[in-house]
Amino acid sequence: MNNPKIIVALDYAEAKNAIDLAARLEPTLCRLKVGKELFTVAGPVLVEKLMQRGFEVFLDLKFHDIPSTTAQACKAASALGVWMINVHALGGRKMMEAAKEAVAVSARPPKLIAVTLLTSMAQEDLFELGVLASPADMVLRLAKLAHASGLDGVVCSAQEAALLRQHCGDEFCLVTPGIRPLDAASNDQARVMTPRAAIDQGANYLVIGRPITRADDPLLMLRNITLQIADQ
Ligand code: C5P
Q1: Which domain covers residue 19, as residue numbers?
Q2: Contact 36/64 with Cβ under 8 angstroms?
Q3: Distance (Å, rounded) from C-alpha 181 to C-alpha 197?
Q4: What CATH number is attached to the domain comprising 163?
Q5: Is the CB of 210 under 6 A from ligand 1?
Q6: Is residue 204 in a domain?
Q7: 1 in a domain, yes or no?
Q8: Confidence bin at 1 (pLDDT 50/70/90)
Q9: Which atom of ligand 1 is nearest to the CA of 208?
Q10: Which of 31, 43, 95, 98 is surrounded by the most beta carbons within 10 Å?
């Protein structure tokens, strides 16, 4: 089965830009990620349109609420027929188990993954919250909790992928943003890794935004990256 590893982040404020970009890409080579901004503006109608073009969609809404509310949100997202959805692991075991149960009843359950610690959170931010653990320890703790709660995987940096793979097993799905092809600008990403290196570290899927969305020829860039990560 065709299982493209690249997830193109559609970080746009308008549906039109997302549709235009999708029209220039190829569903056999990538999936598409719709996040909070675009979904708030364009909603399920846009998700439907992208799927009609043959793309599988990662609905990146990072749900975080009491278990029953999160479960209902996950159920609603599953009903859209998307390929992947996510929640915050900081919502805890009960919330994640409720989310898992809610998607399991859908005809084609989406992959359900967790965000561990936001990469914007540094040590001083954790201290301010009363959390004494280091960001790295929190990431591992939350990934293990997501795994134990029955989730399919986590979003993580490629730098963390090998360690999480070791602790959470071969079946656990690792989705890594912060990916930059060798010749691309890093933009505002502080720690980046090439597509090939991220796959070698154990990433299953790569979230890539601007290197593709802002390329002169997005399809050519997508094809190039696909070649770079092809099995050797
Ligand atoms: O344009 P770029 O490749 O940096 O886009 C990366 C995408 O991954 C964006 O949608 C961003 O919000 C998301 N992301 C990230 N870092 C995380 C989690 C998500 O860059 N830790």
Answers
A1: 6-229
A2: no
A3: 10
A4: 3.20.20.70
A5: yes
A6: yes
A7: no
A8: low
A9: 3
A10: 95
pTM (2 d.p.): 0.96
Phi first, then psi: what are they for 7, rounded to 5°?
Answer: -115, 115
Task: Please give the distance, rounded to the nearest whole angstrom, from the Cα atom of residue 183 to the centre of ligand 1.
Answer: 18
187 within ligand 1 shell (Cβ under 6 A): yes
Q: What percent of the chain has pLDDT over 70?
A: 99
Distance CA 166, CA 113 (A): 17
Q: How far is the CA of 59 from the centre of ligand 1 (A)?
A: 13
Q: How confident is the model at residue 190 (pLDDT cuts 50, 70, 90)?
A: confident
Q: Which residues contact 71 (CB under 8 A, 6 or more apart)?
A: 98, 99, 101, 102
Report how far ligand 1's centroid is from the alpha carbon of 198 (Å).
14
Of 62, 75, 94, 111, the catalytic one is 62
209 lines ligand 1 (CB under 6 A): yes
CB-ligand 1 contact for 135 (6 Å cutoff) = no
Tally the domains of the chain: 1
Q: Which of 138, 169, 133, 128 is nearest to 151 (CA)?
A: 169
- Inter-helix orientation angle 92-104/135-148, to 10°: 40
111 is catalytic: no
Sign of CA dihedral 107, 108, 109, 110: negative
Could you tell me which of 1, 9, 29, 2 has the C-alpha nearest to residue 175?
Answer: 9
Say if ligand 1 is within 6 A of residue 177 CB: yes
Q: Is residue 30 part of a domain?
A: yes
Give the H/E segment covering residue 140.
helix 135-148
